[in-house]
Amino acid sequence: MRTGRRRLPVAGGTDWDLAAREAIAVLRLNAARHPRDPALAALLDAGGSAEFRRIWDAHEVDVGRSGRRRYRHPVAGEIELHSERFDSRDEPGQVLFTYSVVPGSASDAGLRRLTDADTAGRRT
């Protein structure tokens, strides 16, 4: 997939617009939490691409959420993962995401192919 002059990684998400909006919304949240962070300020002052600016200017703020994610992988093929977010009450700012597939689904088979390919590669 091409966006502007950059090529996205092969294993990147197929829901590019959703992933970009969510990532920039989390960036906006962190910018609000850390307004004096010089590295973050420098990143935002750099301007980024027109696509980044368009999404940034929408002013969406997000903490990352549970939901569905689709990925395309060269071995596993297209897989759909369900993500769940867990926030730590004891350690503010610490978050755990888990990912699962529907048992017996095409995504389950894709992850098994990926596991088999990894296992085969370790035996040689």
What can you see in these coordinates?
This protein has 124 residues and is α+β, with helices and mostly antiparallel strands. It folds into two domains: 9-64, no CATH class; 65-124, no CATH class. The protein has helices spanning 16-33, 38-45, 50-56, 106-123, and strands at residues 2-3, 6-7, 67-73, 77-87, 95-100. The strands form two sheets. A three-stranded antiparallel β-sheet has the order 3-4-5. The chain has a two-stranded antiparallel sheet with strand order 1-2. Strand 3 and strand 4 (77-87) form a beta hairpin. The protein starts with a strand and ends with a helix. Residues 1-12 have low confidence and may be disordered. InterPro entries: MLTR_LBD.
* Percentage of β-strand residues: 15-25%
Q: How many β-strands, per DSSP? A: 5
Output the structural class. Answer: alpha+beta
Distance between the termini: 33 Å
Which geometry do the CA atoms define?
Answer: elongated
Helix content: 40-55%
Radius of gyration: 18 Å
**Sheet of most strands:** 3 strands, antiparallel
Mean pLDDT: 80
The ordered string of helix (H) and strand (E) elements is EEHHHEEEH
How many helical stretches?
4
Main-sheet strand order equals 3-4-5
Query: What low-confidence regions span 5 or more consecutive residues with pLDDT below 50?
Result: 1-12
What is the count of distinct domains? Answer: 2
InterPro entries: MLTR_LBD
Protein name: MmyB-like transcription regulator ligand binding domain-containing protein
Domain MmyB-like transcription regulator ligand binding: 14-114
Pfam families: MLTR_LBD
